[in-house]
Amino acid sequence: MKPSAIEAAIRISRALIAASNQSRPTRSWSPSLEQTLHRLGCHELLSPSLVARVIDPFLLHHHSLALGFFYWASQKPGFAHTSISYQSVLKSLSISRQFNAVERLLKDVKAQKIVLDSSVYRSVIASHIIGKRTQNAFLIFNEVSALSREIGPDTCNSLVAALASDGCVVYAQRVFDEMIHHGVPLNSLGFGVFIWRFCRNAELGTTLSLLDEVIKHASEINGSIIALLIIHGLCQVSRVSEAFELLEELRSREYKPDFMAYRIVTEAFRLKGSVAEVEKVLKKKRKLGVAPRENDYREFIFVLISERRIPEAKELGEVIINGNFPIGNDVLNALVGSVSSIDPGSAMLFFKFMISKESFPTLLTLSNLGRNLCKRGKADELLEVFHILSSRNYFSDLETYSVMVSFLCKAGRVREAYGVLQEMKKNGLDPDISSYNCLMEACCREDLLRPAKRLWDEMFASGYGVNLKTYNILIQKFSEIGQIQEAQWLFQHMLEKGVNPDATTYTSLLEGLCQEKKFESAFEVFKKSVEQDVMLANNIKYIYSLHLQRR
Questions:
Q1: What is this structure's pTM?
Q2: In the chain, pLDDT over 90 holds for what percent of residues?
Q3: Which of 132, 291, 311, 399 has a CA that sits 20 to 30 A from residue 97's CA?
Q4: Is the CB of residue 412 less than 8 Å from the CB of residue 445?
């Protein structure tokens, strides 16, 4: 009796996943998987529908297996993939962002004139946007622009915003035109980022004509936000007089410039020393300006961050804090954490503004800020963050202190990190062993071996003891610098304390012993790994053999 299609799909997918777990790397396609499929005898059951059922949902997150199975099926004489099997494999490849494979398959689809569902193009375009391949996303969209309405407003608006953000304003305008032509609603993200970049080099009349186009269509945009973005864009390129002129045009079109828009123009004139114009703008602001809606800007900044339009979120955030306009602590936390990945200086401005408002970063924000400052080598800024927070009694528990110790260590500020440990003790908190290990690792990385040894003594004297990671940090360092007797003593010490070595311990020690030509000692250490765990010994055998061959 033939199994049903769903039963066959489950059986095939389970067999592929189980067999691929034995391969290296795991979950990758290999010739042995073809043998697995032949043993299942599923060749006779093969159809595009079955291929699609196997891939979606069972192999969606295993792109190598999905693509391998897709190509394996096509080897069957007389077999031809259809839209349903192409759609499933493209969905899998889009999720894992296998862009080259996606492009190859899309070429096949085009050559064979296969019609795919619009949802496939939606996921492929979205995947390219997330993967920062916006021009490729545009080229795919351009091939299927007639499906704009079916692809949907979310993806289309994301694409317009991404293209404009990346400086591809001409491409962004073509997507915008297609959206208008096919009646796809624009939102504040898509139109906002596009017009923000577009207006800088466009004639005022052209910008106004685009605004009029959007007004004609049922678009979900926030007029005050759009007004601010256009005014900001013009002032950024020193078109201040035109920005002032545009305030009235925007108001007449119900875009309602708020106080922030007026302030941008005011400050731009002030920078130019145009006192009379400053007074004119302030007069109009008092008469016609409206208060900015904090929640509207909050939502827009969160959308920008979620869409990875971090430069735009940064610029808008700076407009808000420079004018001391209302902004929630949740928005500031989001800005500090996200902006620190592209501009630590600006992130520090948001951080200090938050502190000036008697607010504090969340632990997640502090972690993101610390990690990004470390990546960029901004150790002084990291130390400044610590001093600012410490002076305001932010550090009140083990978790907050441990985060700071970790990042100071990563930044190579060993003395300061040790000072934090002492401050913790002074405040009645016992540092955990992970903080000590973090400091130990930093000492070894900076070649501060004497402080590392003193720290070792302190860990025992204070009653904290050490663990496997502590031993590994020191054994690895001593083996690396040729102090092999120290490494051997530590190895013996851990055995006496009942701490079982792992692959890192054995690999580091074997490497050090072989480099010092202590081959008999190395053999004894390898024997110990066999006695401890045969599987463990198998994992380190290759490294051991490699060093022996270099004798």
A1: 0.86
A2: 62
A3: 311
A4: yes
